User: Fold this.
Amino acid sequence: AQSVTQPDIHITVSEGASLELRCNYSYGATPYLFWYVQSPGQGLQLLLKYFSGDTLVQGIKGFEAEFKRSQSSFNLRKPSVHWSDAAEYFCARNSGYSTLTFGKGTMLLVSP
Amino acid sequence: EAQVTQNPRYLITVTGKKLTVTCSQNMNHEYMSWYRQDPGLGLRQIYYSMNVEVTDKGDVPEGYKVSRKEKRNFPLILESPSPNQTSLYFCASKDSHNEQFFGPGTRLTVL
Assistant:
């Protein structure tokens, strides 16, 4: 079965520092890859997606992610974190025709 | 406004009392699905539907039923809820570009 791994359960970053959240997906045909953010008590919001083409994709709220086939990775980055970025982040890929498989999430804590 | 709606948003019930969580989308999407979210486990798919009258099991279908009688609605049915079905549930629909749109979630507690 296809899988998505987010190795970090929690990450703490100082406000203003750069951020990288890791995501690895199981090998398969070129995947559709997504990053979602979930603020406390809220639903899921799509940050960005990769389907094909340019391997560096830009998303909302200043986030970007880079698809690296050789490493089976799709890491999320932001150059300067704001306190409002504190949330849980989920990486996901499609599996088969329509199923979306999620990683277990990374909780981002932002320290002053 | 394009959206996925779920009702109720919060529900506390008792073991064995049948319940239905409704889901509706106004984007004319053919594909809809249900997920449950549990701490440390991320989101896991319960059921999905590729079109009207077509449904299939996801990763964790046990204890759940769904129906898809019309394109816009995809209710989740728990015939006999148990405490291990206490969770946060999300409905989603998917467009032709493979992007999923999620509802606001339903927090269910089964006592």
Q: What stands out?
A: The radius of gyration of chain A is 13 Å. The CA atoms of residues 48 and 59 of chain A lie 4 Å apart. The longest strand of chain A covers residues 87-95. Chain A touches chain B through 22 residues (CB under 8 Å).
